[in-house]
Amino acid sequence: MDNKEYKKFYLIREDVLPESVNKTLEIKDALKKNPNLSIFEAVKQFNLSRSAFYKYRDTIFPVEEKQQSTKEFTLILYVNDVVGMLANVLNKVSEWRLSVLTIHQSIPMKNRATITLSLDATNTNLELDDVVELLKQIEHVTKVELISMTI
Length: 151
Fold this sequence. Notes:
151 residues, Alpha-Beta Plaits, 2 domains, UPF0735 ACT domain-containing protein N9R04_04885, ACT_dom, UPF0735_ACT_dom-cont
């Protein structure tokens, strides 16, 4: 389990962002305001390559856009196919006072499976990083990735 696979999040001032990231934010805003605007037209209008827009579009957002009163996130766990694995994970999640919003377990292939959990951490003092680290410690969990969150 490589800790470098988990991506940390940072708050950063707008004035130190590279021009391509700022333009990506402007394009996202323009697309939100005008649903008839295509990505091709928007990147042309703001003089940014489509590849740069696609590189940053899912990784940058204004904090106020994502602020919520709840702490919800979705994680994907890569696990060995062991009987009772899902039950074991859910027991741990319950011990940590996390609420399960959704669960999906893939069909095992080559003795491996994934468990996708959407969790609400409102009733716990644990932070996202804590939850990821605790899940990594469960036997037969080989990797944990964050796939979405609200803050």
